[in-house]
Design goal:
2 domains, alpha+beta, globular
Amino acid sequence: MFRNNKISSGTLLGALAIMLAALLWSIDGLFLRPRFYILAPELLVFWEHFLGLAVLSPFLFIFWPKIKAMSRKSWMAILWVSLFGGLIGTIFITKAFFAAFAGEVSFATVVILQKLQPIFALLLARVILKEKLPRQFYFWALLAIVASYFLAFAQNGFSWQAIDWLHNAAGFAIIAAFAFGSSTVFGKRIANHLDYRAVAALRFAFTSLLALLLILPTGVIAETSMISSSQWWFLVLIVLTSGAGAMFIYYFGLRRVSASAATILELFWPFSAIVLDYFFNHNYLNLIQSIAFVLLLIAFIKISLLKRQQKVNFSARVIKGQGKGKSLGFATANLDKVDLDITHGIYAVVITVRGQEYLGLMHFGYKDVFKAEVSLEVLIKDFASDIYGEDVFVKVLKKIREVKKFDNPEELVTAINSDLDVLSKIKYKN
């Protein structure tokens, strides 16, 4: 079986983007959201998403041809992300934090239970996205979770007795953990196929609509008059930082790392909260927190460098194409399955035709970067027979590059030859 150990710059960039989003969420929890605890959480969620939509709405028009061409599966994914990650998760974690700010429950209760999020995300990523990760991932993931606990609570001598399991806030935090964890998985699904800017805009559009449908019948929207002028400015700040700004950055990163890695990298927020606490409140780390800080940092680095192994095998039928590849000297087989849970790109694959395996190249993505039509076609190495109408089996081995737009046929031919050179260096064992 082919294994790819090379770490791409895109993976590292994606990990850094997710950690930056987590930093912005830390700012929200520490300095921004507490200013609104007297308001109904549903109202706050509506306005932060509605204002975020105003910022991101141009991307709905820019990417509309590709948005309206999304598959039913992709539409269901974005609806899940909007309902659970955007609406339910945000409302319930806000309710839980408001209870903590009001002194009804310990802050530890909310944070420790919300940290169940990685468990939900890891399980769903394994079941839904078929993400198969190396064993080392689970070690570093567990270390990151444990280190984040000590980093967040060692200053005050955290104990399990501090958790009020029967308080409503505990249930709110658990619901939020599931909502955010599942949103990471389904967000990864949609981010595979659609530009991250369009994903963020769609999420804010649907969440705004869902929140509006929630607050109109209850009359909560009337509380808008209670929002002071200074709070409106803080709402704008939330939109530009922890709201639309953070989600914009987050989806940029999510496209480049696995959902499993993303949910662990999101634990960057306890680390960033401690750093902010030091700079703004001059609170120092004790010995236990310092050790946890180092371990968490090591875990983040290790997780960022681990290469995921996503098992993608599928059957498809060869359909009639336009013959453009043949005109360039590279005959390809067009396939009828175009809804894979992998990012668009050029892949090294193994194709089984008539019981025989062949190495090949697979193009999965838009036929043109400015058009919405998605194509799936394979170039089978050392194979020249007509297989129109036949079924083939494809094993995806490695992503070689992104789909690109070429100015002329000569550039495309050069790129294909370069891809074939990469393919010739692959050693595959069944």
